[in-house]
Amino acid sequence: MVKAIRMNRVGGPEVMELVDIDLPPPGPGEVRMRHEAIGLNYIDVYHRTGLYPQPLPGALGVEGAGVVEEVGEGVTEFQPGDRVAYGGRPLGAYSEARNIPAAQILPLPKQIEFDTAAAMMLQGLTVQYLFHRTVPLKAGDTVLFHAAAGGVGLIACQWARVMGVNLIGTVGSDEKAALAIENGATHVINYNQENFTERVKELTGGKGVTVVYDSIGKDTFTGSLDCLQPLGMMVSFGNASGPVPPFGLNELASRGSLFITRPSLMAYMARREDLEASARSLFGVVSSGEVKIDIRQRYALADVQQAHRDLEARKTTGSSILLP
């Protein structure tokens, strides 16, 4: 028996229950891995609330790091004792141990600790594809990145600094502003004190930015469009304040033929070769020390309800992990 979080209905944090489950041997193409650490991400809230529907009863969690305990039929690239990590589907990371397709896990370099890996896989791979594939950034570009003091945001601040990109970040407090600056943001806007659209225009001499990265959704969407230069790209990759409401395509034309995309990690990492290439890039900047993973919250797996409350209340900064 292993302990795992399960939910029988969608709703608030109270729907998550810590239960004992029978974990069968891994099936063909699978490995059984024991978690040393588990990532906590805002997408977990979307799964819990039903914004991103999943079958019920269901599991939660899309990121973890640990050790392979057993391999199923046909698995040759991994063996018991291997250190591994993953970020992505299928759900089930909120557990002491799980079975997972071998195609979804990656060998973890020995210089990267389990805690660090669990905190960086989903968020780090997200920044990697946003900066290198969705819009390949180059030195001198100026971009706007919302939630710059969150887990994804702090990685983005550091990676932008490595690339020579000017990152303007938005945050909700002076404490978070200082954190984003410390991690490499060029400018930070406290949206509780300033109108971020007006401030972006001031900072760019009225030109606006080439790209906006927006994981907030409903509350920032229109203002984000107004921050863009003509032919700029709006990257909407999350819904922390709620889904973006329907809008007319003329909203893009009237602002100068803007582009918009709604990417997902799962689509960008669907091919094994893309997953491996992105992971090499991420492991490289973390192993070199150019990007440091700032774990600011650690919760026991049994305290997952409180972890979700803190996440939704925007009480967290940097990365958060669960410990089985």
Number of strands: 16
CATH superfamily of the largest domain: Medium-chain alcohol dehydrogenases, catalytic domain
CATH topology of the largest domain: Quinone Oxidoreductase, Chain A, domain 1
| Overall CATH architecture of the largest domain | Alpha-Beta Complex
State the share of residues found in helices, binned by percent: 25-40%
Calculate the terminal CA-CA distance, rounded to whole Å.
14 Å
What is the gyration radius calculated from CA atoms?
20 Å
**Tally of structural domains:** 2
Protein name: NADPH:quinone reductase
Pfam family, one: ADH_zinc_N
Keywords: NADP, Oxidoreductase
InterPro entries: ADH-like_C (IPR013149), ADH-like_N (IPR013154), ER (IPR020843), GroES-like_sf (IPR011032), NAD(P)-bd_dom_sf (IPR036291), QOR-like (IPR047618), Quin_OxRdtase/zeta-crystal_CS (IPR002364)
